[in-house]
Write a structure and sequence with these properties.
- This protein is of the alpha+beta class.
- The protein has 7 helices and 21 strands.
- The longest helix has 13 residues, at about 240-250.
- The protein is globular and about 65 Å long.
């Protein structure tokens, strides 16, 4: 049996440049029915807040990570999301490969945060993209960062105000540059997995008489989330459940869902062949062919890719099946209409069909 849990993996609190405490963030997550949140403040590992919070009949697991980058570098680049290190790693930020090595050494996970993050000069935001692509050994990439995508639309102050008051119009999907780079890595045999996040800060903005909190936590938690699949349920014990969730994320048993147009709960991408079965992140052999199956929670358009090349497409469907014999990294993208445009909805992690 497979269990599904929904969380947000990139959040900032008052310990760095966010505008809410851990308890306020937990309350926002409880109101939006998330199962877990990971608070990743800049260059500070905050100990002592992990654990469950409760509201009525719902609970949310609050976990701590860190977003590490070299603060002395101008412009700043190479932000790394770190999970499960359980110690401060900001002293290693100056050398990305050394930082990634240290994360691995202490048993943690590392994800390249907002790999493509264009500048927004009109609001004084620099380009914060990842640039040191010769690094290796990291766990994966944050393929969809809601706030990075929002920044890409801000070409002027009027546009900033427009999108601040019309936030649902800004999200279209992961940047093509990020998906292309991920596919190149997968095609080369590098097993790196995808996560998504909001990069939540809940920033208060004032322009003359106008005042607005840009993207409150509660609103953002209804948008880009990471859905984690486990083979065992969560127990209510924070330590057991923390390990269970992060183990599944590390193994790619998860997908990125944009839950605002419609809930992505229930999406499944699986493989069967010669008596074997696989879920996202796993490997299966094509001895007599492998049948890939896609199940959607509601009707949408589906694309099946192998090593970044689209090999099948289905329109307005709830399920899709395709048999393959060629080895490669197979993943799924799902799009659906929302507010007059086709928008990214679901992005799976790959299933690897091996020789």
């Amino acid at each position: 049996m497979i269990y599904e849990f929904v969380g947000n993996l990139h959040i900032h609190s008052t310990y760095s440049d966010g505008y809410a405490t851990h308890d306020q963030i937990a309350l926002a997550a409880l109101k939006t029915k998330l199962d877990f949140v990971v608070i990743t403040d800049h260059n500070i590992w905050v100990d002592g807040y992990d654990g469950y919070r409760y509201l009525d009949d719902h609970r949310v697991l609050v976990l701590t990570g860190e977003e590490v980058h070299d603060q002395t570098r101008e412009p700043q680049k190479n932000h790394l999301l770190v999970f499960e290190a359980h110690q401060e790693l900001a002293p290693y930020a100056r050398e990305p490969q050394r930082l990634i090595n240290k994360v691995k050494e202490v048993g943690g996970q590392s994800y390249l945060a907002h790999p493509h993050d264009p500048a927004a000069p009109s609001i004084g935001e620099p380009d914060l993209s990842w640039v040191d692509w010769d690094v290796h050994g990291y766990t994966g990439l944050e393929i969809w960062n809601f706030m990075s995508e929002f920044k890409s639309h801000i070409k002027s102050i009027p546009r900033a105000i427009f999108y601040a008051y019309n936030p649902t119009l800004s999200a279209m999907g992961p940047f093509p540059e990020v998906l292309e780079h991920w596919d190149r890595l997968l095609a080369a045999g590098t097993r790196v997995f995808a996560i998504g996040g909001t990069d939540a800060h809940a920033m208060p903005i004032r322009r003359g008489p106008l005042f607005r909190i840009i993207f409150p936590y509660e609103w953002l938690f209804r948008t880009v989330n990471t859905h984690v699949l486990t083979k065992e349920p969560l127990t209510g014990d924070a330590e057991i459940d923390r390990r269970r969730l992060f183990r599944s994320i590390e193994r790619g048993h998860c997908f990125v869902g944009y839950d605002l147009p419609a809930s992505t709960n229930g999406f499944r991408f699986t493989a069967q062949g010669d008596g074997a079965q696989a879920i996202m992140g796993e490997t299966i052999a094509p001895r007599f062919g492998v049948t890939l199956q896609v199940k959607l929670p509601s009707r949408a358009d589906v694309s099946l890719l192998c090593d970044g090349v689209q090999i099948r497409q289905w329109e307005d469907c709830e399920a899709a099946v395709h048999t393959v014999i060629e080895p490669g990294a197979y993943r799924v993208e799902v799009y659906r209409p929302y507010q007059g445009k086709m928008r990214g909805w679901i992005f799976s992690n790959p299933i690897f069909v091996a020789d």
